[in-house]
Amino acid sequence: MSEPVPYLDLRAQLKPLRAELDAAIARTLDNCSFCLGPDVAQFEKDFAVFCGAQHALGFNSGTSALHVAMRLLNVGPGDEVITTPYTFIATSWAISYCGAKPVYVDIDEATFNLDPQRIERAITPRTKAVLPVHLYGQSFDVDAITAICKKHKLPFVEDAAQAHGAKYRGKSIGTFGAVSCFSFYPAKNLGACGEGGALVTNDAALAARAKSLREHGSTVRYHHDEVGYNYRLEGIQGAVLGVKLKHLGQWTRERQRVAARYAELLADTPLQLPAVTPGSESAWHLYTVRSSRRDELKKHLDANGIGNAVHYPMPLHLQKAYAHLGHQPGDFPVAEKASREVLSLPMFPELTDAQIQRVADVVKGFFGQ
Length: 369
Description:
The protein is of the alpha/beta class. The protein has helices at 10-14, 18-31, 38-51, 62-72, 90-97, 119-122, 142-151, 204-213, 235-245, 248-265, 294-303, 333-341, 353-366; strands spanning 55-59, 80-83, 101-104, 127-131, 157-159, 167-168, 171-172, 179-183, 197-201, 218-220, 223-224, 280-281, 287-290, 342-345. It has 2 domains: 10-245, Aspartate Aminotransferase, domain 2, CATH 3.40.640.10; 248-366, Aspartate Aminotransferase, domain 1 (Alpha-Beta Complex). The protein has a 4-stranded mixed β-sheet with strand order 1-9-8-5. The protein has a 3-stranded parallel β-sheet with strand order 3-2-4, covered by helices on one side. A 3-stranded antiparallel β-sheet has the order 7-6-12, with no helix packed on it. The two termini are 19 Å apart.
């Protein structure tokens, strides 16, 4: 069998950065700045500039950042937040942590993102906010969602956990909502060597409150203004992210190269290839195709040494944790169909042309091409 192609190869990313990472981590160790500290502060400044935003705050995870984003909008018991049933469950956790109810709206079949045409039907007097996701690195329809939220005087939060470096109408993702949240889980486009996240906003008052909430609801040590959390980003992760951020632009361009090559090589297959939202530039966190024969194709790729993954095999409204919402199969048919058909192919900046060709050849072999 030919050389296997991994689904993700973090070693290939870290190897050329190792000396720089070692030096940055050693500096943090020498400074003993383990919780927040100067490396986190510098990364926050640099990440704000990268996003084109006024404020960026480091968190211990993207989930924590989303939770605090809901707190900033004063989401609480009895409130509803409109969101997508087709993403990682952390998006819904942020709503549930506040005692509010996630209200699901089905997705657009082409982009996997929240379908704006369905949002207004889900708005009730209890709706407090909208929480859409830029899934797989593809921007959601920002103009449409912004217009709906303005019409109904609702804030929205961008879940940009998979969209570092993505753009919408030439502007970086993360600057459209009242607040935006990113994840730095190691497999993300910008990943820490551990957990991490960020909250981004142009509102100084929201940024100040978020800063307090991530540190036990405190602005003055041992004085606590409201119930807060220990959601601080570790100093070592700030140092790592500071090094890696310098390379994110180039990594995004390489991901776009890989996606473009896949599109060329797989154009004549029965696969439904990923679509990019009009006016946007994808960060290609994942390259997710669709097939009615997904499970067979997955087995074929596995047998031929081609890494792959399913994102996501069960939509959120059918998860046991949300059984109390009373949803049934068929409630969100587009999301349910996607969960049966999606398959993510290898996607990382270091993929070689030969590896991409190998993936395409194996996929075509499955279809007898």
